[in-house]
Amino acid sequence: MAERNTPIYERIAPVPERLWDKGAGLDALLEGAREPFVLRGLVADWPLVAAGREGARAARRYLLDHARDRAFKVSIGPPGHDGRLFYDADMAMNFRVGTGKLGDIFAGLDKAEELGDIRTVYLASIDIPSHFDGLDEANRIDLGARDLLKSIWIGTRTRIAAHNDFPDNLACCAVGRRRFTLFPPHQFSNLYLGPIDNTPAGRVVSMVDFDAPDLAAHPRFVDALAAAQTVELEPGDAIFIPSMWWHHVEGLEDFNVLVNYWWRRSPAWLGQPQDALHHAILAIRDLPDADKAIWRVMFDHYVFDNGAHVTDHIPEPARGILAPLTPESAGRLRAFLLRMLSR
Question: Which residues form the JmjC domain (predicted)?
Fold first, then answer.
């Protein structure tokens, strides 16, 4: 990792010991949180964490005991791969993606350990309920009434380029160690983002190699580092990553397991902002500058400002989608957009 010019910050949540067991303390910390923080030992009592303390093979046996008989998606690096799941020189992916039974994948890891030939193997964002039976119930965390997406990340030493996610994220280090480097949302221009439509895992990523940054090509990365917060998580630790915060993630051991929980602050029936960005690129970006300036003001009026001045002059029953959206009006708007996009 590149040397930083600022102290490394770690936010320890100020809660009484084990208060989060009842859910109330953790729920209160997460409600409305817009800054990252670390919870040491949050999931230290998980059986998965206990298995990992016995060793990598014990952790894999524990996971296999809960795995469903189905295919798992896995990313595999070629010989000599350095764990950085990224682009190659031609902007294709520098790893291949396949599927296999978890037992077969783990058998390959066992053999590689015996031969001392650990290659990059990464099972990313595996949905826990659909791929494991009883794993979530045995390794539980109370996140209240949130509608959760529960995922597990399993792999060897890896480096995942800085990216962000729309949902909030509570990431729990279960096996091995992980290093997180976080940047506030506004630092995106200093991270030198890559293509939107060709990404390693569906989210745009920083093109900077954090282990060997090319500051001649990426001079503003120095400013990003000045705003960075970095922490290493031990087994049982967790980190809260707010929506839209950029995070670079490294698996630091030969075998690492992370469990994370995503949830939206907005209803699931609302659209994805990323889709709106794609549509704006299609419809607005390449207009003449004078036209773009008009549309910028229109977006401010209808989307970003969106005050009473937008609708007060319209009879309330006639405001349509200018009124606060409901599941029904959002569904009608989505159907309208689908019709327009399919013309």
Answer: 110-278
Residue 96, classed as helix, strand or coil, is: strand
d(CA 251, CA 238): 14
pLDDT tens digits, one per residue of 225-244: 999 999 999 999 999 999 99
In a domain, 13, yes or no: no
Residue 327, token pair as written in the block: 């599941």
Q: Number of structural domains, the chain? A: 2
How many CB atoms neighbour CB 104 within 10 A?
Answer: 10
Total-model pTM: 0.92
Q: Which of 338, 334, 307, 300 is nearest to 322 (CA)?
A: 307
Q: How far apart are the C-alpha atoms of 207 and 224, rounded to whole Å?
A: 13
Same domain for 221 and 255, yes or no, is: yes
**One domain, residues 169 and 220:** yes
Letter string b/e over residues 211-243, b meaning 16 or more CB atoms within 10 A of that residue's CB: eebeeeebeebeebbeebbbbebebbbbbbbbb
User: Can you tell me whether residue 181 is helix, strand or coil?
Assistant: strand
Q: What is the pLDDT of residues 139-179, one digit of tens each?
A: 999 999 999 999 999 999 999 999 999 999 999 999 999 99
